[in-house]
Inverse folding.
């Protein structure tokens, strides 16, 4: 493949990431350049698939996601795609030996969003694994490229971090998921109202994920650790802010961190990382 086309593909994924998530892009700037470019490609692919199932309401979503999946596997087979985002992702999958099981699990979860509206305990675990945990594992593949044995050692923490992120996103989007998409991602709410008691159960589960995640973050290569730690602090701060919000308020306003709060966390992450992992 022409190097210019490869570069165009990778830059398209980077632009996609910066347009859809300024905070995530800022965190990646604290990472090693090679890791950053690879994760841009991963995020771009995931973002495009997620857009299909969540926002393209005027189109046949099932056909679109099936075409997206088919094009990815065609690209893997023939070595190129005219879809720049798929092309850049396939480059990264091959370069870092990302297992197809992770990609297929992600695509399976995306397709399940078009079929399921409520999840039981086993169902939500499978969904979060496919929609979030595999993302952490893909990124971990990139970050442990020099020491592949670390992948197995750190994979549980990577999955915990991704799970925490996903559950917080569920809470932030609970109004849209419930009212516009008719989805419920919290099994505890299948037969109980969203009140202080059920909210506390959900938050406790998320905090356990964060605790498990930090153990692995401290063991990441130094070149990438600050960026991941920044994302951890960002979502931890978001969890704290959401936790102080009355449940009914989450149906009226999407909770965010202010730009000043983000800047403060950026400074904290870099300072603590500079001091060493024992200060994290």
């Amino acid at each position: 493949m022409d190097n210019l086309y490869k570069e165009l593909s990778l830059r398209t994924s980077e632009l996609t990431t910066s347009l859809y998530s300024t905070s995530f892009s800022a965190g990646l700037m604290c990472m090693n350049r090679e890791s950053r470019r690879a994760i841009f490609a991963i995020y771009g692919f995931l973002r495009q698939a997620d857009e299909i199932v969540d926002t393209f309401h005027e189109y046949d979503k099932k056909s679109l996601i099936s075409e997206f999946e088919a094009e990815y596997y065609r690209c893997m087979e023939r070595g190129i795609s005219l879809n720049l985002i798929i092309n850049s992702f396939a480059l990264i999958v091959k370069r870092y030996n990302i297992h197809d099981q992770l990609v297929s699990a992600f695509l399976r979860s995306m397709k399940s969003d078009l079929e399921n509206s409520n999840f039981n305990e086993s169902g939500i675990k499978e969904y979060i694994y496919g929609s979030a945990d595999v993302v952490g594992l893909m990124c971990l593949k990139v970050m442990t490229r020099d020491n592949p044995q670390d992948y197995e050692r750190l994979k549980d923490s990577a999955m915990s971090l991704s799970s925490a992120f996903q559950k917080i996103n569920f809470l932030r989007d609970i109004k849209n998921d419930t009212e516009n998409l008719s989805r419920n991602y919290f099994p505890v709410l299948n037969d109980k109202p969203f009140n202080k008691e059920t909210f506390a159960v959900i938050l406790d589960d998320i905090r356990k994920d964060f605790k498990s995640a930090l153990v692995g973050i401290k063991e990441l290569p130094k070149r990438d650790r600050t960026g991941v730690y920044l994302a951890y602090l960002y979502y931890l701060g978001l969890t704290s802010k959401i936790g102080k919000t009355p449940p009914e308020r989450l149906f009226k306003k999407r909770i965010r961190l202010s730009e000043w709060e983000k800047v403060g966390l950026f400074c904290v992450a870099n300072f603590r990382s500079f001091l060493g992992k024992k200060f994290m």
Summary: The chain has one domain: 3-279. The two ends are 43 Å apart (CA to CA). Residues 3-279 form a domain with the Farnesyl Diphosphate Synthase fold (CATH 1.10.600.10). Residues 149-172 form the longest helix (24 residues).
